[in-house]
Amino acid sequence: MKPVRLSSGLVRAVAEELKGLRRRPWKVEGKPKRAAVFVPLCRVRTPESQEAGLEDGEAAILLTVRSHNVSTHKGQVSFPGGHIDAGETPEAAAVRELLEEMWEPSNADCDQQAVEVRRATDPELVAGAPSVFDGPWRGDPASEYPLEFVAALGRLCTLPAATGTMVEPVVGVLAKPMEANVSAQFQVSPREVDEAFALTIRQLLDPELAFKEVLEYDTRRVRGIPASDDEAPAVMRKMAVPVFLGGPARVWGVTAMIIDQVLDKVIVPALAADGQPRTRHELKVRHDDS
């Protein structure tokens, strides 16, 4: 597959697909915790993109490897994100967490951060976001934030994490093109992030790097019920879960499910709407003996 261009047309198509997405509600008991993650579409300069004449790089998704200082999911691949504060929208929470994780909070001006969150979630700015992708990048290199331009385009379907937290994935765009060494272009918060990296859309749609594995799991663990000798026998189930390779660490779990959803429900249809080469997103099950 050739490198995908993150054009203004593709960004518009992504926003339209998100607007029309049918979000199925989850039936949950009580009041579970809510979290938001930012799913950043970005441009990364790779040898393949330069060969294809894409000056500002090819379309990719930004990811992070969580620090071992955090309380859960230590060392796992994730999106920037965290719990939604009282009175906060998922979009605002996702952008806030993005700025906190990718731009060390101690170095960031809190007032400026609040301005960035308001800008990134402002309907007028979001509506104008695609125009930023017309022509070569001409951003201000002296911008206070290394991201320079962030826009939250819309939400995917809510997903439950194994901890019981309901996760709201917010898809957005980062306008500034990045070099292949993504981590070096941010001042990540070491309390939360070990490193940042990107997987190109080309990699995410490569059947050699993207597939499904059959996972057997104990439904008690998913519901957060601790194991004990007194409880009823385990109810084991199997399901095929997505896995993505190509980065410094294996992408699986809720993060992989979010990527699978954004590819299937948003990116692939948007590529067709933008007139870019049609492709398919159909992960095949890979067994241990394959």
UniProtKB/TrEMBL annotation:
Its cofactor is Mn(2+); Mg(2+). GO terms for molecular function: coenzyme A diphosphatase activity; metal ion binding. InterPro entries: CoAse, NUDIX_hydrolase-like_dom_sf, NUDIX_hydrolase_dom. PROSITE patterns: NUDIX (PS51462). The keyword Metal-binding applies. SUPFAM superfamilies: Nudix. The keyword Metal-binding applies. It comes from the Eukaryota. CDD domains: NUDIX_CoAse_Nudt7. Gene3D superfamilies: Nucleoside Triphosphate Pyrophosphohydrolase. Residues 32-222 form the Nudix hydrolase domain. PANTHER family: MITOCHONDRIAL COENZYME A DIPHOSPHATASE NUDT8, NUDIX HYDROLASE. This is Nudix hydrolase domain-containing protein.
